Amino acid sequence: xxxxxxxxxxxxxxxxxxxLRVSSAALVGLNTEWARCRWIWNECVAMSRKVHDLNxxxxxxxxxxxxxxxxxxxxxxxxxxxxxxxxxxxxxQTIRDFGKSRTKALKDIKAKLPMRQRAGxxxxxxxxxxxxxxxxxxxxxxxxxxxxxLAGGIALTVVWSRDLPADxxxxxxxxxxxGHWYASFVVATAIEPLPExxxxxxxxxxxxxxxxxxxxxxxxxxxxxxKSAAAKLARYQKQMARRKxxxxxxxxxxxxxxxxxxxxxxxxVARQRQDTGRKWAKTVVRDFDRLAxxxxxxxxxxxxxxxxxxxxxxxxxxxxxLVDMARKHGRIVHLVHPAHTTMDCAQCGARTKHALPLSExxxxxxxxxxxxxxxxxxxxVMLVRAGxxxxxxxGGSPPGALLPKAA
Length: 407
Prior knowledge:
Layout: E1 2-5, E2 11-21, H1 24-54, H2 66-79, H3 81-84, H4 88-110, E3 133-137, E4 141-144, E5 147-150, E6 154-158, E7 168-175, E8 181-190, E9 199-205, E10 209-213, E11 220-221, H5 225-228, H6 230-242, H7 253-287, E12 290-294, H8 307-313, H9 315-328, E13 332-336, E14 362-364, E15 371-373, H10 374-385, E16 405-406
């Protein structure tokens, strides 16, 4: 079964994220605004827990929906001048975010999902642990002279690394673990079609190669960004282990320095993986009209002996970049169910009686005698299941074929 995506979509929304230069006055304003939003979130958590305790033995159930939370916010702003001094926009959005989080958790409980798959109920955000994050709708911000002006008189300098394609509908201002501030704008985007090529491609995800395709020139080798940074990361982690503070004690300056250095390496590796995935995705989308992509979730690899290498491959990040890039440029993506893709023969469709061990890298069909690399055979199976033409992967096409040739 395949799930085509990208067809029939005229427009969508995308996030454009930019670094912020924050002055000392703006930093005070942001931290104060975040303190208000964090207080509201914690009040919502307390109210939710109170309602849960009341409903245990009550015959008439009470609720903790948006209406009740809005009344709570109105009453709090009326009674507290400190809360009223802040903008109502991020405070209202905090309630909306809490409502979505709680609704998702209750939905998972009602569906009786396993505990490991459930979204947990919203928890208290502690001052030392929670990173600031505030959402503003259109009435809560404006762009003027290249600067971002937030409700409450907070002005921020944006590092415009690229232009916004349209006026943003909302913005999220947040701080990462390194103390850097960012603004993430939500923008309505239109499809930017690329010239048609008449070509299709099958893509199989793996560990030896991040992506094996029906086109040798479009394979994505394992970049090993994490492995390259492992030695330096281990040095800082050992420093953190030696300087780890006792329970209840404040961390030393040396521990904080080592922790920040380790966080910098983690962020650099994440950006390298994302950059590699986007560049590869743009090449594939530019050269092919239709993409048959294995639609598996690489989470199961985290429980295997290949967990470290699979995580370093960043298959999930690369797959997301490919789907987003295809949607942006109007290409059609067929997400193929991954079951038995390594056991089927792309030539005759025969299935092996037993699953192939990972150490066996060559697929040999006992029915038709076809022999090919395991991942290449799986990539061709993607084309077969997507209803595209796999024969073109070898440079030819079967008699009467009407579909475009594969790479």
